[in-house]
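Lab manual, section 2.4: Encoding a predicted structure.

Procedure: take the sequence of the chain (406 residues), apply the prediction step described in section 2.3, and record the output as structure tokens. A sample record is shown.
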Amino acid sequence: MADFHQNGNVATLHNLRTRSPEALVHELSTFAQSRKISLILPSLFSELEGDALPNILNELSSVPFLHRIVIGLDRADENQYRHAKKFFSRLPQEHVVIWNDSPRMKAIHQRLEDFGLNPGEPGKGRNVWFCMGYTLACKDSAVVALHDCDITTYKAEMLARLVYPLANPNFPYQIAKGYYPRVGGGKLNGRVSRLLVSPLLIAMKKVIGDRDYLDFLRSFRYPLSGEFALRIATVPDLRIPSDWGLEVGVLSEAWRNLAPKSVCQVEIADNYDHKHQPVSEEDSQTGLSRMSIDISKALFRKLAADGTVFSEEIFRTLKATYYRTALDLLESYNSDAKMNGLEIDRHKEEKMIELFAANIMTAGHIFLENPADSPFIPTWNRVHAADPSLMDDMLKAVADDYDDYA
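Recorded output:
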């Protein structure tokens, strides 16, 4: 059974195992009659060929409170798009597959480029951004949720728990962030969260000093979880990062735009596992190595925007402080794992800490060389101001793709 600890910064909504999932779903179905709930699934075509997504669709097929499911499809050709439409057709809810690589969607991209509104490089961030724009253009949802398509332990209860705090009209929350333990295959997982984000936030507080923003981020039990939900009113002003900093970027936007009492984290699963990225020690453009650089840059940019002055000396000190802090935390993780009959490969994890320490310096150098660089995609409010017809035209482009590639 979970504890009931509150950290005082953001509300933590636990699963105390005192209410059945069926009771939660029944209440959500009542809320959904007047507060429509949509779900975004950013997907690579390759995920349609894996084991996780078919099970996710089987679970979603039983969800009665969903109004619409918006699937963003990346890295797909025409035949793969046709296959995707059939693949997702098992969903009983209203749903749509946005073929991000279609000629019509590429024309939408070009219109954005012509206005100087670059939608960013292909990836999860851009995929999510277009799905959010589509949901906004539909003008009929009150709550929008998002989760990944590679969750191997997926249960429909996860979605119910994620959206409940926002669907309940008596709750004040505008954004809900999911959390869970990352355990699988007899191992303690969640390497980037454990070995990079947690010790880096502690090190930043030591080196830079107290910052409310750092305390806010440290309040989240799993800041890198890909599962979050938003009330639709927050979406038009949301700045979505196009790189691996998506999850940290969304939390930073919550900090910038909302009062802390409007943000909650909710326990959505007893156990969670998904596809594991390679570390990619030899290639800083892929895998966990790329992820660690992007996340570090996202944190540096946010702190700089709030007035923190960075220098080469600060980054060197931060690297050293991070390294010592990460090793100390690794000792705690190792004890926790052993007490629960789990494994941690100390040698591999210390090597990963060394890689992350080097990447903190790399991220610092990139930031100092180009401090004005921003991976953020423009907000949908800005897009609408520049091109008021684009969102409606995007709806038509998606519908025409459906008709033409039957």
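Check your result against the sample. The mean pLDDT is 94.
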